[in-house]
Structure formats: structure tokens, C-alpha cells
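Case study.
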Amino acid sequence: MKSAIGLLARGAAAIVTTLFLNAQANAAGTLREATIGEPPPLDVMVTTADVATAIGRHMFETLYAWDSSYKSQPLLADSERLEDGGKTIVIKLREGVQFHNGKEMTAKDVVASMERWGKFGARGKLLMASATSVEATGKYEVTLKLSSPNGAWKNLVSDVNGGLAIYPEEIASKATGQPIEQKDYVGTGPYKFKEWRPNRYVELEKFAGYKPRKEKGDGFAGARVANFDAIRFIPVPDVGTRVSGVQAGDYDYAEMISGDLYDTLSKDKSVQVQRTNAPIFGLFFMNSKEGILKDNYKLRRAIQTALDKSQALRVSFGSKDLWKAEGSIVPKDTPWYSTAGIDGYSPHDPKKAKEMAKEAGYTGQPIRLLVSTNYQAHYDQAAVFTRQLADAGINVQMNVVDWATLIKMRGQPEQWDIFVTHHSFFPDPILFTFLNASYAGWWDTAEIKALRAELVNSSDQAARKATWDKIQALIYEQVPVMKVGDAYTYDIASPKLKGLNPNGPAFWNVSNK
Amino acid sequence: MWAFALKRAGATLVTLWAASVIIFAFIHVIPGDPIYVLLGDTATADQADRLRTELGLDEPIVLQYLQWAGRALSGDLGRSIFFQAPVAAVIADGAETSILLATMTMVWVVLIGVPIGTVAAMRHGTWLDQGLSGVAMLMASVPTFWVGLYLILIFAATLGWLPSSGYPSIFEGGLGNLRYLLLPSLTLAAPNAALILRLTRASMLDVAREDYVRTARAKGIRPWQVVTRHILRNALLTVVSAFGFTFAALMSEAVVTETVFALPGIGRLVVQSILRRDYPVIQGIILVIVVLYLVINLLVDLAYRFLDPRVELQ
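After joint prediction, the assembly is written out as follows.
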């Protein structure tokens, strides 16, 4: 018996040794990023999913792009000219820009892309709804005519996320609302599509025909130089595995690391921590169409008065470096920072809240809060708030579902009173979901209607900022939505990488030391 | 014999049809659809409605079933909404990982479970037996994600001997890629080996009480030969039947291990597909699994009948 076990043990040892000897180094020149999950199809014009954006922006480019301080700088555009009080926008394109299929980009491609974006793009309507015509007025010149000026136009064409990515005419003109096929992933970016292995990876390879802009790379703007031969985006759903993978050298970059690991990883020499400069923020939407909170603004204010947002942020994000209890909807150090109404952000006064609720005619009826467990932070925040509201005598019933169910249910106004989500950073308030009257929540009072029109139709920045101050004050008065606070997500990278992009994962201009 | 086989096959087809209806109904009963997963959270209602129509997801559920069943009958499982690729290809790719992982795990299960179970049985009642049984209980109780993360931490992050995660196909990188499955298979093997260990031990103790074992001993056969030839060989009959169940379960239920090690296997694929409501993939995988079980059952039934003609179909 002993000899039989010995034999088995020797056999096992032999297998293990063979496997070790076969260990091979990673193919040189491929950057491997561990993503949180599989992306949906990479047609960035129709999808706003972050995983698709992070990959897609290497392949597809926009007319303008945000620099590291989130100002729009020309990318595929060369210059622009506004006529007719801002109602006519003439964009001059860069010459000599090549698509991945070898064709040169001209005004025709831009016009076809704009038309598809206006019809099917996730954010296309915001600009194209007021378009009266879009034409190629030269081989490299596009003229867009609007029925009224749009002060946000440049921001609207500066990001690939649901945005105006430029596709070749023959692809854009036949594309519908369905995501385009993989064979049609043809853009002008520094990397081009190579292959997609379901459940394994998406691989992009360097595009040899790319000619970077002359300006120095800054954020997403300026020169884009591909230093790696290829980039592989690998879905690694477990955060512990993403971290160990970078420590072990199996990945060069891993995104979305959890807050509880921040302090340890900040001191760990085997990784470098990359905190974003663009905070996301949690949002609790109130139902403005139906139910107990429909137009009872006093009760909504009572709810917000009971809350201590810092506590929810601490529970959901951990380290103090990763969150800020900020009442301004847009963070500090941006042109849109505003203090209007922020006294109402996080008073944490359960006694006062109780009185306000009583005055609002509230007698303990259940308030249905819809939240998903797919995002741990959403659930944590909802749990903390439910507890705090109980202290103020406000009876919240949590309805916990998965994300796909939440999205379905939030479209049905009779199903909920409050739902939880979060919002990405945007450098222009026009893109905020709560200003969209058709987004779940359906905030469309007379006051916001008027202010919304004012915000869109003015092209003067000072005037637009003054309008935004009024909108933020109104948000704290009517409480269509409660901001939880700013959360700075962070990624980790191999210490060998340099030139990481503070705007978010983008791997042009990144190289090995 | 032929009448029996035909009747049995007919019953299998009816079961398959019933299963297909249940699969389809259950998946469509849960709320949610893949639209917002494709388009992202901020898609407008208009945009979502239009895509729903383009994908045919707003058609009556019965019609959707008939279309799917019709195609499935001709061997076409449809296209994944999410991957924009044929479901059959997506499943085949996942199956490679799952089959290899399950096989490798079974190797560990046998190498660990059977010999240690035998030793425990032979030293029945001693401190060694107690100790080994304790270790087995511990292995069966520790959560797999915890074991997995620690193995990664030790063997990948600290020692750097093995890759931390992922699995590139052996058809592209050669057999050497099996090293990617070493840690995951050990993780999965721990609780299953514990089970087999306990089973081997119990089964051997049963057999050891049989008369023929006493006779063998009385004949003066060497003790280790009694153990290997008479006890173990007979005890293994029970254990081997447990291998089948374990293997089948490993194929489809290794979700946690596949997630921790970022393996492109069937378990993770089905869970992710449910979360993103990729209906064709969910239906395809469950159908394939049902077919596999049905075929195995059918073969077993036929084999029984072949071995023992007295078996009648009720």
C-alpha cells in the first residue's frame, strides 16, 4: 500500500514539475488589462456602458476630446466657426486622417455618423433634435444648422460614450439601432479591432496608419501614441483576483478595485495606485410621476434632512481618500461648481425631519425603495439611509433585486417611490440623467422645464453657469434626486507602466519604463 | 429489445420537449431584458423600445418559443445577443475549459481521496483515522472562494510559480496551458476529495466485515493484499458510482471557482448570461445539459436492460 501511495505521489509531482517547466513569459508588447466584466458590443455610439467605452475609445474617435481639465480640444476636427448667433456650426476637419480600413476620413463620413447618431445614438438627440440640416460643405468641412443655439454642443461631441464616434460612411449609413457587427468595428483610433473571444478577452492591435496630433497628449486630447503592439482586455470578475493578478505580473492594469484595499495597496510596492480625477456620484431618484412622493416636496426635503451622507459614503467606499461629502452636484475645481442650495445636502437632523414629515402630512406609510445588489455601494448606501430614516420615523421598505430587474421596474412608475443608481462624471450638466424628463423619475415641473431650455439654448458660459446655479437650488427645493456624494474610484497598475491617464483607463501614451 | 429501446427513446423526446418549454418559460418569467445591458443605464426609452423591436423581443412569447424551438430542432441554437456570435460556438469554447477542469479535478480527487480514505479505514479508530477525518471535514467546510484566493496569493502573487487566473486554450498554446488549471482544480478538488475520502473509508469498513475477507485472512494472504485485492476492489464499486455524479456536477456547478480564477467555463457563462438576460445563451446551455443527462440516462436504462432482460418498461 505504501509503495502504491508513493507511486501516486511521484506521479503527481511529475505532473506538477512538467507544468511549471512549461511556464512561459507573456508575449512582449501586449498590455493586459483586467476588466470587471465582459463588455456589451463595442458600438460606442449606441451604448453608454462604461466597459464598452473604456475599450471603444481606443478604436473610435470623436471630433473633439476632453483634456485633463475636461475642456474640449479638437481631435478629428481642426477648427470651428460659429455663425448666425451660434445656430450654424461649421467644423473644419483634419486632413489625412485614416480609417482602419485604409480609407481617408472626409466630411461624408462625419455627416453619415452624425445622422446615425441623431437617429440612434444614446446621446444624439441632445444635439441633433434641434438640427435642421447637416451637410458636407467641402471635402473636409461639415456644416451643422440648428433651430436654436446649443451651448453644450462641443461637450456633446467630445466623448465616445453614447457619443459621436466617427465611423466610415458605408458603415454608419446602413447601421440601425442595433449595435454594429464586429466586422464593422472600423474607426480612426490608435488601436484597431483584432478579435473578441467570448468570456476570454477582447484584443486590439496597434494601427500603423495612425497619425497623432501635434499637440502634447493631455487627458483624452492631443497626441495619441500607441506604444504597445496590442492591448488585451480580459474579464476578471473577482476583485481579489484582479489585485493578485497585477501583483503576480499576469496583468499590467486592473480596474475598479474595492475601497477596503486602498490603504494596503497604496503602501504596496508591487503595484501603483491610480485614482481617477473624475468622481462618480450616487443618486437616489424620487418618483415624480406617481406615489406618495410624487409632488410632496416637503416630504422629500424631510427625507433628505434626516440623512448623514458621510456615514453612507464611509460604509460604501472606506478610505477617506476615496470619497467626499460634496453637496455641489459638479465637484470643486470645475467651472460648474456651485454652492446654491447645498445647506440641504446632508443636515442629519432626525428631529427636524420628523417635524417636517408631519407637516407634509406623512403618517408612516411605507416608502418603497428599489435597489440592486449588483453594485455593492448602492446597497450599502440604501441600508444606511433606511436606518437613518427610521430614526426620523420615516418607514422605508427596501426592495432588493438584480440590476436587470431594477432597470425594468424603474420604468414602471407604480412599482417604486425611490430607486438607487449612480452617475458618471460629466463636464457639462446637460448630460445629467435627472435633467432628462424621460429618464425614470420623470422630473418635468414647469420650473425645471423653463430652466432646462435656458441651459441648452444659451451659448454664453457665464449665463449658462447662472442658470445652473438656479437649477441646483431647485434640485434642493424639489428634490427630484438626492446626491449621495463624490466617490473617487481607483485602479491599480504594474509599477513598470508610465504615462497613465488620470481621466480613466486609456492606454495610448502609456509605456513600459 | 428494439421495442423497449424505441419506447424509451420516445419518452426521452417527450421529456426533452417538456424541459425546453420549462426552460423558455422560466427565463422569460423573470423581469428585465438585455436591452439596457447592451445600451447602458442612460439609454432613452425610445432607443430601448426600438432595439427591442429590432431584436424581436417584443413579439408574443409563444411565437418567440416556436421560432427558437424550430431553429433548435435543426441544430441552430441561435445567436448570443450580447456576444453577437453563434451560441453553439460560445458554448463549445466554454465546454473546453469545463471539461478539462472537471477532468483534472477528478484526477486530484482520486489521487487524494482514495489512498487517504484507505489508510483511514485501515487505521480505523486510531488517532490517525481521527486526524484524517478531521482534515477531511475541514476541507469540505472551507469555502472554495477562500481556498482559491489563498492559493492565488501564495502560488501566484508571492511565489510566482503559477499563473493567477485565466485559461488560454490548449489548442492555441499547447498542453503547457494546463498549468492555468492547476490551482483551480486543486481548489475544486478539496471538498470533493473530502467526500470521496469519507465514502472510501465508510465503504471499506463495510466490506472489511464481510465473510470472504475473514476467509482471505484465514487463508494466510498477506494483509496488504487483503486490503488491495479483496477490500478496496469491492469497496470501490460504490465509490466509482459517486465519481459520475461528481464529474457532472463539476461541469456545470464550478461557478465560484471559475469566477475566482477568471476561467471561461460553462458555470460562469450561464450565471453571467442570466444576469445580462442573454436568452439564447441561457436556453442553449441548459438545453445542452438536459440533453446530456437524458442521453446518459437513456444509455444507462438500455444497459440495464441489456444486462438484465427481466427489466420491463412500466
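Observations recorded in class. The longest helix of chain A spans residues 2-21. Chain A is about 30% helix and 20% strand. We will return to this complex in the next lecture.
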